[in-house]
What does this fold into?
Amino acid sequence: MNGKTFYKNYNWIVYAGLGFGLLAGLPSCRNGKSQVAATTTAVINPDSSINATVKQVPATVQVQNNYSTDEHTILEGKQVFQSNCTACHSFEQKGIGPNLAGVTSRVSKSWLTQFISNAPAVISSGDVHATKLVEEYKQVMPAFTALTPEQVEDITAYLHSQQPETEDPNTAKLGTPLNDPIPAKIPKSELLLSLEAVTTAPLTSNEIPLARINTMVVLPGKKQRVFLQDLRGKLYEMEGSTLREYLDISKERPAFIPTPGLATGFGSYAFHPDFYQNGLFYTTHTESANTAPADFVYADSIKVALQWVLTEWHLPNPSAPVFAGKGRELLRVNMVNQIHGVQEITFNPFAKPGSPEYGLLYIGIGDGGAAEQKYSFLCNSNKTVWSTVLRIDPRGNNSKNGKYGIPAINPFAQDNDSNTLGEIFATGFRNPNRIYWAPDGKMLISDIGLTNIEELNIGVAGANYGWPAREGTFLLNYTGKMDKVYPLPTDDQTYHYTYPVIQFDHDEGNAFSAGFVYSGSIPALKGKYIFGDIVSGRVFFVESSQLKLGQQAPIQEFTLQFAGKAATFKEITGHRKTDLRFGMGLNHNLFIYTKTDGKIWRVNGCSPNKKI
It folds into this structure.
């Protein structure tokens, strides 16, 4: 069930007479499957506004919820759940959506049925509980109207089979959880950031997000060019305020899939530093599970949700206005879930020809949701590819599959251990979605957190950034529920984790939107690392000079002005989730854009904030 709108832990239930009619306690037969009913009782909350019938039900009324315990029904429900819901929900953790363990003991079957089928309709009805969920998770679960009534029934049977486990005994050893990990609030600075509208990206969907515009890249060389990709498969060349289609990856790779969203699709792209000479271009994209044998796999007992593919393309005419080339696959990775896949691919722009790092490709690979599904052994290791940043030589051939090279300068390439992966540059990331080099040469890696901390790290070869044992500068119970963080243990230094240089908690924002150190023509912005929160659209900054290992730089927030009018991105987009991203174009111009509506803005000024 994609989206962040299910039940957390509110004592709130609706009348069971809605949705499917329930035959309390009576077995039935459906498609030859014996329907053995499991019955639960729930208390009605009269404050629901899902419809007039609910409001008339007294608070003391009890309802009977019948769920099938037939093993075939539950198995079919599991399969439908895994295909549609696991990107956002699990039975172990609160993540993108709530932890669903025991959900059938907290809400009525009819409410659950209606919500699964058409959450937006329940929300738009003014339903109190649904509204609270939207407020907490900042997203709306899409309608699943294509599911048949039987499939929804199967899902509810599977949900009912997943009851909460007993509390992990390790939890008591961790101390008191921190309800507010970072109590200090991010202050508003006196700076007003002025933005002007540039254009609206071509819409690639009729549903939000309307355009999944993501990464802006400047191609240097004899002719500087600017590109911007949409995760649904399009790569545009940006010429002034025009976005002209350069590449449609679905035409080059028919197995390409952009669904179910959450960073799946056309993930990233990079031009070789010698692109104008050798025509080499790199992309990542997603394909269905088992499309082809993967280079990086795990035990067959763990489901494969999809595969990420890294491709090298050769373009005979690098200056051509439209993509034309042939590709070869460099590597393929299986993923436990749709989330946290292969993120940024990029080259170090400061590496000079002839230096050991010149032409080496960096690849951010998330944990694929493994930690949240209790497969933490796949993460935070120099023996597995997940939860890492890789560094490879795409022109070499000494990798296991013979399709790329493992640089001798990598931290584990010369350790004489056949079990370690020489490709690894650093480990311990949940979702290393952006890799960027500041003007002073610092490598910055943003990492989107789970339920508490968002962070930016300085990249160091061989460093371990802690996930899933750490989130930011806090301890995480990765063997149990991961929705709380705890103070670091007294012996923390023995673990040798590298901690972030920027972090904020979830009462400030929900997902780190990485940005850039400004080096353009606006004096008040020079030297500031400008970034934001994906969900709320708040825009922050820190002084780049304060980004130092071993400390967190103090964050300040801009006031925003759109075409002369003070506003927020929530107000501009008209939605709770803005899907905010940053780009750097020609002449170091800073762009801010939102997937929600596809609008692109350029920063055109910064001044002391006076009343306007």
Summary: Residues 71-164 form a domain with the Cytochrome Bc1 Complex; Chain D, domain 2 fold (CATH 1.10.760.10).
